[in-house]
Amino acid sequence: xxxxxxxxxxxxxxxxxxxxxxxxxxxxxxxxxxxxxxxxxxxxxxxxxxxxxxxxxxxxxxxxxxxxxxxxxxxxxxxxxxxxxxxxxxxxxxxxxxxxxxxxxxxxxxxxxxxxxxxxxxxxxxxxxxxxxxxxxxx
Length: 139
Hints:
It is a single chain. The chain is of the alpha/beta class. The chain has one domain: Rossmann fold, CATH 3.40.50.960. Helix content is 45%, strand content 18%. Strands 2-1-3-4 form a 4-stranded parallel beta sheet, with helices on both faces. Helix 3 (77-94) links the parallel strand 3 (61-67) and strand 4 (102-107). Helix 1 (16-26) crosses helix 4.
């Protein structure tokens, strides 16, 4: 089990989270290779279906990284994302996949180190949970 490398999908906004990624890059910090990053104009545009589809397509974990509530360029984007992630947690719980396999983070544009820490935290969390039950059914 220790050699398990979780496949994680990270949806992140093109504003704050993207800026944080650039700061991380400037600090010579990078997300682990097992995290597939999907850049979206705003986390408020991410639908429940997108989050569930990531699991269906093999992700062991999923997270959304967006702006802080007071600095969202589109006003309520991160609030919408938080509500949708909460809804997906309930669905994952009902399906016995585990609600802890998905999360949402608000990031300041200047917090490059935090951007990488979030990826590492999710990677460690999912590694401790093991492969997604969805993936076990497909093997």
